[in-house]
């Protein structure tokens, strides 16, 4: 009873705080100096139709590097911790019944389409809403679907690790090239900006998002595969 009362009091407190913030919110009548600069100059400077994408990949390139680094460390820690919990092998463990034929066929049909859609999202990230993180998460959902259909399915940890490491290495390499050949880390001007609004535009941004998408997809997949293998023990 006491726990319920405390929970209600905390919820009421949070509700009061957020209500005061909501009722007292007054939107700015104009953009601040930084936001105005981005809104007026991002398209012309980067050649990207999606301003949000251009800001994340170019102006905030070091922040994006930190984000993918945190995700990499999370995947590595999850794999390390779960590896310590695995004991022996799956011999003697009752095998799960095989999935139905309809489910298997449906999964084989949907998984490639999901991967293709994820690739579309990060390849077109400079033109439409989306990008590397969203596309990578979509690709990882295809791996999740395969695991849900057959939890005993095995994936190559070595292949996933190599893919993640290679994409991360190329990502850093492009960032360094931006410092050497253009105006800063991950500066997209190392490649021609191309024609605005087309697929081959915005300089190196599409290439950067391809690397981020594959890297993020590999990291999410690594975590799910590690969790699946641990549950099977």
Considering the chains and any ligands shown, give keywords for the structure:
8 helices, globular, 233 residues
**Rg over alpha carbons:** 23 Å
Shape: globular
Low-pLDDT segments: 87-93
In the residues, how many domains can be counted? 1
Total number of helices: 8
Number of strands: 0
Percent helix, as a range, is 55-70%
Head-to-tail CA distance between termini? 39 Å
Give the integer mean of the pLDDT values. 86
Our estimate of the beta-strand percent is: under 5%
Q: Describe the main β-sheet briefly.
A: none
Specify the structural class.
Answer: mainly alpha
H/E element sequence:
HHHHHHHH
Written description of the protein model:
This protein has 233 residues and is an all-alpha fold. It has one domain. Helix content is 70%, strand content 0%. The protein contains 8 helices and no strands. Helix 2 (33-46) packs across helix 3, helix 3 packs across helix 4 and helix 6 packs parallel to helix 8. The longest helix has 27 residues, at 205-231. It is globular and about 55 Å long. It starts with a helix and ends with a helix.
């Amino acid at each position: 009873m006491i726990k319920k009362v405390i929970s209600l009091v905390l919820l009421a407190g949070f509700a009061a705080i957020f209500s005061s913030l909501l009722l007292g919110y007054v939107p700015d009548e104009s953009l601040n100096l930084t936001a105005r600069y981005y809104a007026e100059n991002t398209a012309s400077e980067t050649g990207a139709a999606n301003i949000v994408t251009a800001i994340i990949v170019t102006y905030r390139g070091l922040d994006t590097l930190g984000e993918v680094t945190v995700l990499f460390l999370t995947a590595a820690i999850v794999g390390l911790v779960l590896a310590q919990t695995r004991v022996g092998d799956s011999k003697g463990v009752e095998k799960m019944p095989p999935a139905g034929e309809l489910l298997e066929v449906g999964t084989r049909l949907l998984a490639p389409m999901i991967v293709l859609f994820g690739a579309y999202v990060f390849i077109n990230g400079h033109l439409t809403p989306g990008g590397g993180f969203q596309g990578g998460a979509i690709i990882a959902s295809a791996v999740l679907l395969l695991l849900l259909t057959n939890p005993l399915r095995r994936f190559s940890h070595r292949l996933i690790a190599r893919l993640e490491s290679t994409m991360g290495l190329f990502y850093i390499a492009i960032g360094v090239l931006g410092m050497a050949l253009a105006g800063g880390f991950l500066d997209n001007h190392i490649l021609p900006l191309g024609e605005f609004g087309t697929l081959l535009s915005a300089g190196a941004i599409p290439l950067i998002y391809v690397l981020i998408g594959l890297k993020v997809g590999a990291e999410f997949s690594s975590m799910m595969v590690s969790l699946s293998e641990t549950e099977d023990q």
